[in-house]
Amino acid sequence: MASPAVIRCYAFTFALSVFLLITPSISIYCDEDDCYDLLGVSQNANTSEIKKSYYKLSLKYHPDKNPDPESKKLFVKVANAYEILKDDETRAQYDYAIEHPEEVFYNTARYYKAYYGHKTDPRAVLVGLLLILSGFQYVNQWTRYNQALEMVKKTPAYKNKLRALELERSGGVSNKKKNNKMDKKVHEDLSKELDLQINGAEKPSVWGLIGVRLVLLPYTLSKLLLWHGCWFWRYKVKKAPYSWEDASYLTKQSLGAPADAWRNTDDATKDDLVQRQLWVKSNMESYVSEMRRESKRRR
Questions:
Q1: Is residue 100 part of a domain?
Q2: What range does the record give for the signal peptide (predicted)?
């Protein structure tokens, strides 16, 4: 059995822990003071009485009215107590903290939510977050694009295109400077004329940023709904034949071809694929079988 001294030690430790936990849940409002006592009113005082007492004390302790150095501290405490008690919500939270001091974490969370949470406009937070994300996205896209551009510039195909462009600009007379190496300034000028299409690392555009897309989301959704409505009316209700652009879109979707790959496909191949009407299941199955047979013949 524990000795009386050990029991007293445990009791003191427990009491101290309870004091350290419970006290902050009340003191966070008016420090170590009671908000009602600071204003000189009872806990049952109405809003009018609280307001009247505050105006009276604020005149008494205002630094311009009272030269006493302690008056400034009292003035700040009185103003803080009034801010808490003048609002029905924060006053109810304070009264709850007085009646339930054991709920330290709950009371503390409610205090900080009331005094700090509402001061930050969620719309400002959302806009700031979107700006930060869009900034990171834009920098990342430019980094990827520049890295891909440097890699492409080291390939023989790019150097050949650059050389051909140089010959075209110079009228077929090649630059002989420095072992036929192109002058740096000429190299940069000609590089700007080459329109490089790099798959997977397209030149960044502000229209692709997440912030811009979110702002334009209502417009995008409206446009999408209008497009689907027109499609349904034209091809489902009126049974009109597909235009070449719409048939091309259906063909691309049926093949599962990426937008870049389809855009770089030559017109003759596109026409052939569109005429096959691959969006029809039977036609697609026939096309797949034909491709398989052709692949086996090549082997």
A1: yes
A2: 1-27
3-state secondary structure of 152: helix
Beta carbons within 8 Å of 142's beta carbon, 6+ residues apart: 204
Residue type, 169: R
175 near 182, Cβ under 8 Å? yes
Q: Is the pLDDT of residue 51 over 90?
A: yes
**CB neighbour class for 44 (10 Å; exposed up to 12, middle 13-18, buried from 19):** exposed
215 within a domain of the structure (yes/no)? no
3-state secondary structure of 93: helix
CB 167 within 8 A of CB 174: yes
Q: pTM to 2 decimals? A: 0.46
221 located within any domain: no
Please check whether residues 101 and 202 belong to one and the same domain: no
- Calculate the alpha carbon distances from 265 to 4, 13, 134, 156, 295 in Å: 92, 80, 32, 23, 20
pLDDT digits (tens, 9 = 90+) for 212-235: 898 899 999 999 999 999 999 999
Could you read off the pLDDT of 5-32 as tens digits, one per residue? Answer: 545 555 444 444 443 444 444 557 787 7
The residue out of 162, 184, 206 marking a domain boundary is: 206
Q: Which two tokens stand for residue 191?
A: 């590089």
